Amino acid sequence: MSLDNTWMQAQDRAKKAGRLLGEVLEKKVQGERPVILVGTSLGALTILTALQYLASLPGGDVPGYVESAYLISLPAAPTPEEWVNVRKVVARRVVNAYSESDWVLAGVVRYVLPTRGILLILGYTK
After folding, report:
1. Cβ–Cβ under 8 Å, residues 58 and 33
2. Cys-Cys crosslink for 18: which of 7, 42, 46, 117, Cβ 3.0 to 4.6 Å?
3. How far apart are the first and last CA of the chain?
């Protein structure tokens, strides 16, 4: 298995796009109106990365940029501390929607990245 497989490349691009989205939100290119972010799979990873970027800004608490964030089938397992940081930068709701029976995503992620964090997504705790 190569480290440059398609899934790894897509995850890397989603994280880079998330950083860019975070920078755009920081500069308030959208104006003063807060945004609602909705993403599925790698789009959810992009949103998570953007929110983590906003949380890392000096001051840390920047509510108002994002009204709500909906992450559907997120291919990551953020730590409780990461969720707390993400929550600080969202004014209303952060929703992590997933299905325990989503074996396609679970199988792809498990095949490519068999790490503890990803296995937590699949329900393995050992």
Report:
1. no
2. 46
3. 24
Residue bearing the bigger pLDDT, 6 or 3: 6
Report how far apart, in Å, the C-alpha atoms of 52 and of each of 23, 59, 98, 107 are. 11, 13, 20, 26
**Tokens at 75, concatenated:** 């291919």
Quote the CA–CA distance of 98 and 73 in Å, as a whole number.
Answer: 5
Domain ranges of the chain: 6-121
What was the pLDDT predicted at 101?
Answer: 76
Residue 25 CB neighbour total at 10 angstroms: 21
Q: Report the SS3 class of residue 79.
A: coil
Amino acid in position 60: G
**β-pair partners for 37:** 69
* Cβ atoms 11, 75 nearer than 8 A: yes
Q: 37-92 pLDDT, tens per residue? A: 999 999 999 999 999 999 998 875 566 789 999 999 888 888 899 999 999 999 99
Which amino acid appears at position 100 of this protein?
E
